[in-house]
Design a protein that fits this description.
Layout (H helix, E strand, L loop, with lengths): L5 H4 L6 H6 L9 H16 L8 H12 L4 H13 L9 H15 L5 H14 L3 H14 L4 H14 L2 H11 L12 H12 L3 H14 L4 H13 L3 H10 L1 H4 L3 H17 L12 H16 L5 H11 L9 H13 L3 H16 L5 H21 L3 H8 L13 H17 L3 H17 L4 H14 L1
Helix pairs in contact: 3-4, 3-5, 5-6, 5-7, 5-9, 6-7, 7-8, 8-9, 9-10, 10-11, 11-12, 11-13, 12-13, 13-14, 13-16, 14-16, 16-17, 17-18, 17-19, 17-23, 18-19, 19-20, 19-21, 20-21, 21-22, 22-23, 23-24, 24-25
Length: about 450
């Protein structure tokens, strides 16, 4: 049975009474369920399966046993599965049933208005209505600025939409209400820093992240934020030194560690030193591996066998269509593996959903952004570089809508540049050079940009 060390390790916001005292009462009579809710939330914020707390799976099993009817227990458990984007309620009956059960439980109980809003937001997110889900989480935060679950769920949803400014401001609005003595308060530094860097406030983002790390050296999200800053400013050597120097701190956050290694690997690609090692399992690791293989291939590295390995992971998700960002990465794997039937199936499935998207925000964007980006990748893969440019170039300022970070989406900027450079169309070739000049202005001293410039000159001079 659950033997909680939480009371010793983290006395604040654990018990039923403590949640109530903070103004965030939980509708359960089980003190144990409250501690487990806190344990799950803590691990979610820290990106870590903490075995001293029981890990995610252990805590989720235990919270259901402690109080099977605890609405917020269902909200956090099912919500975490939804934000992981590893399955779709369209296809996964068990997940759809979990959402339905949560709604039914909420309707049958006298729970607080805050908890009822949490259920509403989770249900909206499960339908793909990310904007309205965020609106509801923001409503919660207006009255309850220390509701960390609402803050973290909205942060993730904004990320999936590429909503950079709302992601930043959502944290900025609640920061004054968080006091230094509150556990996990330092983690808000990382959340805020990430919003700052995605809105190009790089120096401020680094400053805030380092403040967070001074308080909590093992805050992997603050490390991740600094890694982004070094990437976007092309401070390659600084990034390499930073990641290596803090590796022992951030690698304990197993949910994020592989992604941080991905950022570390980007610096090596800049310096033309190739490393390749990825954990598997989470969707974040899967899309990172897809992106890395594509980047390596553009650098001229043969990764044929790795595409085949990764296809085994991505192929079962071909029909999911949870986010456009995921879809585009699944497509690059099937294209790399020369699995044309899977590629076509993914494209046709997305086209079909775009016809009647309903309230699903990602499907609403599919017709105007997702589908043409998929088509551009397919044209590029077939050597039709002219057509790839014609499809991709008009979307360059809309790519943000697919979600992810600037660093992750940079892959598609690189793809456009490569297509323009390889195109037989003279205008496209000039465009490619213009895009490289533009890129150099944004992140000066990038070795990758300079290599591409040299390649463009070699091809067309």
């Amino acid at each position: 049975m659950w033997n909680s060390p939480l009371t010793l390790k983290k006395p604040y916001l654990c018990s039923l009474q403590a949640w109530r005292a903070e103004g965030l009462p939980l509708s359960t009579s089980s003190n144990e369920a409250c501690k487990l809710y806190d344990a799950i939330l803590t691990q979610y914020v820290k990106w870590r399966n903490d075995e001293t707390l029981g890990g995610f799976e252990g805590c989720i099993s235990a919270i259901q046993a402690a109080d099977p009817n605890f609405v917020m227990g269902h909200v956090i458990s099912t919500g975490l599965e939804l934000v992981a984007t590893t399955s779709s309620t369209r296809l996964d009956e068990r997940l759809a049933g979990a959402v339905k059960q949560t709604v039914e439980l909420a309707n049958s109980q006298d729970i607080s208005p805050r908890e009822r809003l949490h259920v509403k937001a989770m249900e909206l997110f499960s339908h793909g209505n990310f904007p309205k889900a965020c609106d509801v989480w923001e409503d919660i935060l207006v009255d309850h600025p220390t509701d960390l679950l609402a803050l973290k769920f909205s942060h993730d949803a904004y990320f999936y939409m590429g909503a950079q400014t709302p992601m930043r401001d959502s944290v900025a609005r609640v920061l004054p209400y968080w006091k230094p003595h509150m556990p996990l308060s330092s983690c808000l530094k990382g959340l805020y820093s990430f919003g700052l860097l995605e809105t190009r406030f790089y120096d401020q983002a680094e400053k805030v992240a380092m403040e967070g790390l001074a308080l909590t050296p093992d805050d992997a999200w603050s490390v991740h934020s600094v890694a982004h800053v070094c990437e976007m400013k092309a401070e390659v050597d600084k990034g390499l030194k930073f990641m290596e120097g803090r590796e022992k701190d951030w690698q304990v956050s197993d949910v994020l560690a592989s992604h941080n290694y991905w950022h570390w690997a980007l610096y090596f690609i800049e310096k033309v030193k190739i490393i390749m090692s990825f954990a598997s399992g989470s969707m974040l690791d899967t899309v990172d591996a897809s992106s890395m293989l594509c980047r390596l291939e553009m650098e001229g590295v043969c990764v044929k066998d790795r595409w085949q390995e990764l296809l085994q992971v991505t192929q079962p998700h071909t029909d999911d269509h949870v986010t456009l960002f995921n879809d585009l990465h699944f497509l690059m794997v099937s294209l790399g593996a020369k699995e044309s039937r899977t590629s076509q199936r993914l494209l046709e499935g997305l086209q079909e959903l775009a016809k009647e998207p309903g309230e699903n925000q990602q499907h609403q964007l599919a017709g105007t952004v997702g589908v043409p980006m998929c088509q551009a990748m397919m044209e590029y893969n077939q050597g039709n570089y002219n057509q790839a440019v014609e499809l991709l170039y008009p979307l360059r300022y809309r790519m943000v809508d697919i979600g992810g970070s600037d660093a992750q989406r940079d892959l598609f900027n690189q793809l456009l540049i490569h297509a323009a450079m390889k195109s037989e169309n003279k205008h496209h070739q000039k465009l490619g050079r213009c895009l490289l000049v533009e890129r150099d202005a944004v992140r000066p001293n990038s070795p990758l940009t300079h290599r591409l410039m040299q390649r463009a000159r070699a091809l067309h001079d």
